[in-house]
């Protein structure tokens, strides 16, 4: 039953996201794809995930739960705390995104995550976080003409 609930939630999210995307205003002077192409791709990815869940349910139609969702693993406090910490870190990123701006909030967010998943490589983590953030900023602002939150940055 949890798989069916996850499937329904995925379909509902994909449908709502696609509906909101299609309701975006279309600028008069824009490229043929406009600002909708990326959100449409995200919606398509969600629908694809839902389709894969349907296939998995069909393959296990004898009533047994798929192996990945059995949940017979013992409780692991360390993993639970890590998931809770990453969730809180992501919530803080969402909170700071508009206030601090894209560049500082994204760089700090990525550096923090990378320090958890790639511990012991401080310089590489910082360089990767900074490089990705600057590359994404250039791509969005200069190539795609997307306005990102400026926050505390002067540009």
Structural notes for this entry:
By secondary structure, the chain is mainly α. The protein has 5 helices and no strands. Helix 1 (2-22) packs antiparallel against helix 2 (37-59), helix 3 (77-100) runs antiparallel to helix 4 and helix 4 (102-117) packs antiparallel against helix 5. It starts with a helix and ends in a 12-residue tail after the last helix. The model has no long low-confidence stretch (mean pLDDT 81).
In a few lines, what is going on in this structure?
The protein has about 160 residues and is mostly helical.
Kindly name the structural category. mainly alpha
How would the global form be characterised? flat
Amount of helix: 55-70%
Q: What is the tally of beta strands? A: 0
Backbone CA Rg: 20 Å
Largest sheet: none
**Count of spatially separate domains:** 2
> Uncertain spans, ≥5 residues at pLDDT below 50?
none
- Number of helix segments? 5
For the terminal residues, how far apart are their CA atoms? 50 Å
In sequence order, what are the helices and strands, one letter per element?
Answer: HHHHH
User: What is the mean pLDDT?
Assistant: 81
β-strand amount: under 5%
